[in-house]
Design goal:
The complex is a heterodimer of chains A (about 525) and B (about 300). By secondary structure, chain A is of the alpha+beta class. Chain A contains 15 helices and 23 strands. Chain A has a 7-stranded mixed β-sheet with strand order 8-9-10-1-11-19-12, with helices on both faces. Chain A has a 6-stranded mixed β-sheet with strand order 14-18-13-17-15-16. In chain A, strand 6 and strand 7 form a beta hairpin. Chain B has about 300 residues and is mostly helical. In chain B, about 80% of the residues lie in helices and about 0% in strands. Chain B contains 12 helices and no strands. Chain B is globular and about 85 Å long. Chain B starts with a helix and ends in a 7-residue tail after the last helix. In chain B, about 40% of the residues are buried. The chains are: A alpha+beta (about 525), B mainly alpha (about 300). At the A-B interface, helix 6 and helix 12 of A face helix 2, helix 5, helix 7 and helix 11 of B.
């Protein structure tokens, strides 16, 4: 009997153990299901992505719009012929599938993707490309950047031939957002001046509405040639104040906050719901030097200014290590970049050069800038001025409003009041040809708004040779020579390449920012469970 | 008689608005800055800029430009076309005007109600602890910059407590924080004015008579003191409306609230002349109308006042 009871007890114990095991297993599975997404979760369709930017693009017309952040949303509707990978800067086919050029870079045969339609049903073809590029050359804001195009021929419905002046980086230039391809039917129906009311492209998203200064809304295009995007709707919200933009991200009102200052990144990184996205940097910040003004005519003086400023300390102290010190006139991720030996911080060398140039006691100078235009610009200008004063160059800071600043910068040499000026340049096509544009001696004000007035008899011959050949190795060699010459001439105080730092809520996967500050949503999706 | 007065005031407003239009037209063109250069940015070339100026009619003599602007406005009610946006200025302004009026109206209401309440409490208990506290609140309200207050509200009510949305518009919940932030200086100004008025009125003989008749203090305040004390407060509120419209610029910027203040500041920065002209004219018209309403309110508060 006792044995029977013990046997029964053992059986019940075994049964209880089984039940406990089963219950624990169920509890574990339930806990995993409720605790959040499992690693490696597949993307899901649906959701709305809210993106906060600082400045709106006032007009929804890809050829006439300005402001790269707003253009980034527009290019989701109106695509470009090529694209640049957000991380590597690699040139990618897009609406153009393949291309070839003549050796002298004057004839470009571009084959277009087949089976693509605009959102209004108009077929995407060579005629549409011709129409759009002619519009860019006619009324486009960026027509100056495309003025190498002399003729556009339609060879067949999916092949376009561009005749240009020698211009090797043409296909990289076609990744520049203001050359997006819009529906010719829509432009003709609405009229060129009213196209902005209902923009129509081939992109993964279709235009819904634009409330100027407030928001732009776009919806997923179910018939997109690259496959329906995962995210159903994208809203771009204009939130000018960076503090409010970050707070809105933390409150969950935004999924992406553009342009997070370095002082906020560490705090945001500690937030479990937020990640920091660091795009490759393309915006080069520099202090331009009016090379025709008084003491600044002397190369030794300009070099002295470079030695006087501690760029490493600026990067560490103001930008908290985000971004990088410039080692060329443009970013290192651009084609044609060649790193130069740095102007290391050396006040003794700076003073020696000033003395050799005939300015042992220094001189007075004005450093002009427009506050609030670039990240940490006021702190940067104050630091540069302080470094210059330390070697006897008595820099006075002049802060002016942006539109006034623009007017000052376009004055011709005889009327220019600019001496030193803070500016930045984006180099969207990521090519040395574009990166060196601000220094072109043939484009001094009033031909441009960059008052360096740099003169160099060797610059243009080298520059034109480099853009005239498709031989990559030769181009690289020519740019190395050109950059070396510019570096030595020091028409700028070379400073930093600005960080490209943004904050994204972790529910938004696959969201990145290109080096030109436009948003990258290829395969991006929202974790709706978060 | 009041109708004739209103009509006369409205007719007198016309030369005021014409004067405003001339001043704005001149000032925005006198300040340095080229709208074409602002729009083109890195793509600036003098040829492209000249072409844009020609397209926008900015290459014509100033008198011609002003004449065209006034002709369109008077004959067609057309404020012109936005340089930056390309759309009609009237549509841009009217799409934002109601947002700013909601914001300014809510701020005025909060400022008026809270300000009068604090002012009456302080004025009826002069030199007491409550009076001191009320004046400290008023001082703090007038000293705090609205953008700082706004960020503080966003951090507290949106980020930490998640009670209200941080930015945007579309519901009454979006209006609460901007209106509160904008109303703080109004609370301060109205409270101080109300306190002074209440102290002044409290010294009047009829108040002593009312108390002697055996009325409760609440009745004395409500029936005899308040109406008379509010007359100078209403005057101040009318003037403060102008400051509220001006303050809306910063408030709308911090809260990303799509109102006319933000439209105006963006238009000034981009030298969008037609939008600047249109927005300021609308602000001026709103200011004139509010002051007419304030004058009418006097009649309601003090039957001895009439316009004829």
């Amino acid at each position: 009997m006792q044995g029977k009871v013990q046997g029964t007890k053992r059986r019940w114990t075994a049964v209880r153990r089984s039940w406990v095991t089963i219950c624990l297993g169920v509890a574990a599975v339930a806990a995993m299901a409720l605790s959040g997404p499992v690693l490696g979760q597949a993307p899901k369709f649906g959701g709305t992505l809210s993106v906060g930017i600082g400045v709106d693009t006032p007009r929804w017309d890809i050829h006439r719009a300005t402001g790269m952040q707003g253009l980034g949303i527009q290019r989701l509707v109106t695509e470009t012929l090529t694209d640049l990978h957000w991380e590597t800067g690699e040139l990618l086919p897009n609406l153009a599938e393949s291309w070839e050029s003549s050796k002298d870079a004057t004839t470009w045969t571009v084959r277009l993707r087949k089976g693509v339609q605009f959102h209004d049903g108009t077929p995407f073809d060579a005629e549409a490309v011709k129409f759009n590029l002619e519009r860019v050359l006619d009324v486009g804001v960026a027509k100056g950047s495309f003025d190498m195009i002399q003729r556009i021929e339609v060879k067949d419905p999916h092949t376009v031939v561009f005749q240009t002046t020698p211009f090797a980086p043409l296909m990289r230039l076609f990744a520049y957002a203001p050359s997006g391809i819009a529906s010719p039917t829509q432009i003709k129906n609405l009229g060129s001046d009213n196209y902005f009311r209902k923009p129509t492209g081939t992109g993964p998203y279709t235009f819904v509405e634009h409330v100027r200064g407030d928001r732009s809304v776009i919806m997923a295009n179910g018939r997109y040639w690259g496959g329906r995007p995962y995210i159903n709707r994208v809203i771009m919200r204009v939130v000018p104040d960076i503090g409010a933009r970050i707070a809105a991200l933390e409150a969950g009102d935004l999924d992406v906050a553009y342009d997070v200052p370095p002082t906020e990144t560490r705090r945001l990184e500690a937030n479990p719901a937020i990640r920091i996205v660091r795009g490759r940097t393309a915006r080069t910040v520099y202090v331009g030097i009016n090379t025709q003004y008084g003491p600044l005519r002397e190369k030794k003086v300009r070099q002295a200014l470079n030695y006087a400023v501690d760029k490493e300390a600026i990067l560490k102290g103001i930008y908290l290590g985000e971004g990088r010190v410039s080692d060329a006139p443009f970013t290192n991720i651009a084609f044609g970049h060649a790193p130069m030996p740095p102007y290391r911080y050396d006040t003794a060398r700076a003073k020696q050069l000033l003395t050799e140039a005939g300015y042992p006691d220094g001189f007075d100078i004005t450093l002009t800038y427009a506050p609030g235009r670039y990240l940490m610009d006021t702190q940067l200008v104050e630091a540069v001025a302080a470094y210059l004063r330390a070697v006897g160059v008595r820099a006075r800071i002049q802060a002016v409003e942006w539109a006034t600043y623009g007017r000052m910068r376009t004055a011709r040499l005889e009327e220019s009041r600019i001496q030193l000026f803070l500016l930045a340049f984006g180099n969207a096509p990521l090519d040395a040809d574009h990166g060196l544009k601000p220094l072109r001696p043939d484009q001094a004000p009033p031909e441009s708004d960059n008052p360096t007035f740099y003169e160099s008899p060797r610059f243009m011959p080298l520059y034109m040779q480099a853009r005239s050949t498709t031989d990559v190795v030769r181009r690289q060699r020519l740019y190395r020579q050109l950059i070396g010459m510019v570096w030595d001439d020091a028409p700028w105080i070379f400073l930093i390449v600005q960080p490209n730092t943004h904050a994204v809520r972790k529910r938004a996967n696959g969201v990145y920012i290109r080096s030109d500050e436009t948003i990258w949503l290829d395969k991006a999706w929202i974790d709706l469970g978060r | 008689m009041e109708v004739r007065y209103i009509v006369r005031r409205l007719l007198l407003a016309i030369p005021v608005l014409v004067g405003v239009s001339v001043v704005v037209f001149a000032i925005i063109r006198l300040i340095p800055g080229d709208p074409a250069q602002v729009m083109l940015g890195d793509e600036y070339t003098p040829q492209a800029a000249a072409e844009l100026r020609r397209k926008w009619g900015l290459d014509r003599p100033l008198a011609i430009q002003y004449g065209i602007f006034m002709e369109r406005l008077v004959l067609h009610g057309d404020l012109g076309t936005s340089i930056a946006g390309g759309g009609p200025v009237m549509a841009e302004v009217t799409s934002r005007l109601h947002n700013t009026l909601h914001l300014a109206g809510a701020a005025l209401l909060i400022g008026f109600i809270l300000g009068v309440l604090i002012g009456v409490l302080a004025g009826t208990r002069p030199y007491s602890a409550l009076d001191g506290l009320a004046m400290v609140v008023a001082l703090v309200g007038v000293s705090m910059p609205v953008f700082w207050l706004g960020l503080l509200f966003i951090y507290l009510f949106a980020v930490k407590l998640a009670w209200l949305p941080a930015i945007g518009s579309g519901s009454w919940r979006h209006l609460v924080m901007p209106a509160l932030a904008l109303s703080m200086f109004l609370v301060a100004a109205v409270a101080r004015q109300t306190r002074s008025s209440v102290l002044e009125v409290a010294r009047q003989q009829y108040i002593a008579t009312a108390r002697a008749k055996g009325l409760t203090e609440a009745s004395v305040i409500r029936r005899h003191m308040l109406k008379n004390a509010l007359i100078p407060v209403v005057t101040v509120a009318g003037v403060l409306f102008g400051r509220t419209l001006g303050g809306s610029v910063l408030t709308e910027t911090v809260f990303a609230y799509p109102g006319m203040g933000r439209l105006l500041i963006e238009a000034i920065m981009s030298r969008d002349y037609p939008v600047v002209q249109g927005a300021i004219l609308v602000f001026a018209a709103a200011f004139v109308i509010v002051n007419i309403l304030v004058d009418m309110l006097y009649c309601m508060l003090d039957p001895r006042i009439s316009y004829g």
